[in-house]
Amino acid sequence: MQEILEKLEVKRAEARLGGGQKRIDAQHARGKLTARERVELLLDESSFEEFDMFVEHRCTDFGMEKQLFPGDGVITGWGTINGRLVYVFAKDFTVFGGSLSEAHARKITKIQDMALQNRAPIIGLFDAGGARIQEGVSALGGYGEVFQRNVLASGVIPQISVIMGPCAGGDVYSPAMTDFIFMVRDTSYMFVTGPDVVKTVTNETVTAEELGGASVHTTRSSIADKAFDNDVVALLQIRRLMDFLPASNLSGPPQLPALDDSERIEMSLDTLVPANPNQPYDIKELILKTVDEGDFFEIQEAFARNMVTGFGRIEGHTVGFVANQPMVLAGTLDSDAGRKAARFVRFCDCFNIPIVTFVDVPGFLPGTAQEYGGLIKHGAKLLFAYAEATVPKVTLITRKAYGGAYVVMASKHLRGDVNYAWPTAEIAVMGSKGAAEIIYRSELSDPEKIKARVKDYEARFANPFVAAQRGFLDEVIMPHSTRKRIARALNMLRHKKLENPWKKHDNIPL
Ligand code: HXC
Questions:
Q1: In sequence order, what are the beta bridge partners of 182?
Q2: pLDDT at position 192, please?
Q3: Considering 134, 358, 416, 441, which has the largest number of Cβ atoms within 10 A of its Cβ?
Q4: With a 6 A CB cut-off, is 156 part of the ligand 1 pocket?
Q5: Under a CB-based contact definition with an 8 Å cutoff, are residues 245 and 318 in contact?
């Protein structure tokens, strides 16, 4: 009997070595942890239960029958993060570069099926070169099975991807269908085809970093939602993110013990908006002073910085924040900001996370670059996302809410539940100067007259009261009481029930 038990231990030890000590050393030398080390760090101590440790591929082409590694390049199983169930798979780069065989795909799809059936999030740690080249179509079919499950689980359970090494082919397509993608700086890359193929096909010379490094994907392509300095920071931050997310679309967001007084007054907010309407201020200051303990997990902070999106908590409940950022492009809405915020709003709506919107927007960004780039459709994405969202929506206009952008930013007209404004709010079709110059074009030659017209327009619209008179705002609030008022509103809306008409699915302008 003892012998049998020892045999199991030997087999396990073999499996734990993945592609062998030499490749593990190479992984470490690149500044990367191994798949197993990553899983250990991601999950609560001793909570990981591994499945399919002894699975091997069945390929016999290209001498593959002689290259068998138990586990076949992916570690799968389940565990907990701060006590809450999650399913996890981690690609093992030391085995055929983490590439996906048919057997490897089955391991992943088993975990995907369990996550969906048991309604718990799934986290993929990617460090892999796509389809196992030696397996041909069997590997491609395996990816198809993974992709199909990604789609079915979308909007039901949170799916998180962390890119922790060079990733190509299916190892970028599967993440692309998940809710969030995170990268590790300097060691992770994402591309459909790597630099060598690029050189062959297009004759472009490009490094892996230039083609698909963390900086490209967090600032230019917006494929990645955030980048971290190394594996350890990335995994600890994923643990932090998971505390904000619900287990599924049916469970409701988690509630953490609230240590921050929801009645907390912030007198400094009374002077946040500068006297000069053209002077910017940092909207993140408002977010940080509103959320519990200043704890804000920003999503896509390096992309479309004129829009801020991320998770915070109020009274311990998760809230999604969307805010125009006057510090960047004066907070205008452009195509990138529209896409970014639309995706975030839809995530929140899928998973029953209330949305708080802070508005200071002088309008859509004008110009040919924007129009040719599809501003109409990208802006419409955000309009559509807010309009279809049925979660509690609390909106606060701090300063400008001009034109179409006023309507888009969770206005009353798009079923905003509670719409507040600070006394500094200005709600109009456009800024006073532009407005006066259009209405009184014939007086343009007389600067004094125009000045007076601008003043008139300002007096009429550079305040929240015209909108408040019409009931488009529910209340004009003091800046210092923002946290308290939003907390009260969210509390009042906690059991909101609103349903859209039945449909197969909508047709958001993609
Ligand atoms: C089999 C692979 C592999 C693959 C890497 N390896 N990718 N084995 N199939 N797809 C193996 C290597 O042979 C090597 O084995 C080990 O993994 C490490 O690879 P290196 O090339 O030495 O590492 P590195 O220089 O860091 O480069 C990593 C890489 C590169 C960028 C991922 O290996 C690469 O470009 N691989 C091919 C990527 C690719 O084109 N995949 C197919 C995508 S198609 P040894 O024995 O030396 O350790 C696809 C279709 C899905 O995925 C459908 C999409 C819609």
A1: 162, 226
A2: 92
A3: 358
A4: no
A5: yes
Compute the chain's Rg from CA coordinates: 26
Question: For 383-398, what is each residue's pLDDT tens digit?
Answer: 999 999 999 999 999 9
Residue whose CA lies nearest to ligand 1 atom number 38? 129
List, in order, residues 6 or more apart from 226 with CB less than 8 Å away.
Answer: 180, 182, 183, 218, 237, 298, 299, 300, 301, 302
Nearest CA, atom 25, ligand 1: 166
pTM of the model: 0.95
- Residue 189 in contact with ligand 1 by CB distance below 6 A: no
Catalytic-residue membership of 19: no
Question: Structural domain boundaries of the chain?
Answer: 2-183+218-242, 267-425+463-492, 431-462
Question: Is there an atom of ligand 1 within 6 Å of 403 CB?
Answer: no
Residue 327 CA to residue 453 CA, distance in Å, equals: 29
Q: Which residues of the chain fall short of a pLDDT of 70?
A: none
Residue 458: in which H helix or E strand, if any? helix 447-461
CATH fold label, 2-183+218-242? 2-enoyl-CoA Hydratase; Chain A, domain 1 (3.90.226)
83 is an active site residue: no
H/E/C letters for each residue in 413-446? HHCCCEEEECCCCEEECCCHHHHHHHHCHHHCCC
Query: Residue 141 catalytic?
Result: no
In contact, 235 and 41? CB cutoff 8 Å: yes
Residue among 169, 363, 403, 431 flagged as catalytic = 169
Q: Reduce the DSSP state of residue 473 to 3 states and report it.
A: coil
- Strand locations in 17-119, DSSP E? 49-51, 74-81, 84-91
Q: What angle do CA 192, 121, 118 make, to 5 degrees?
A: 125
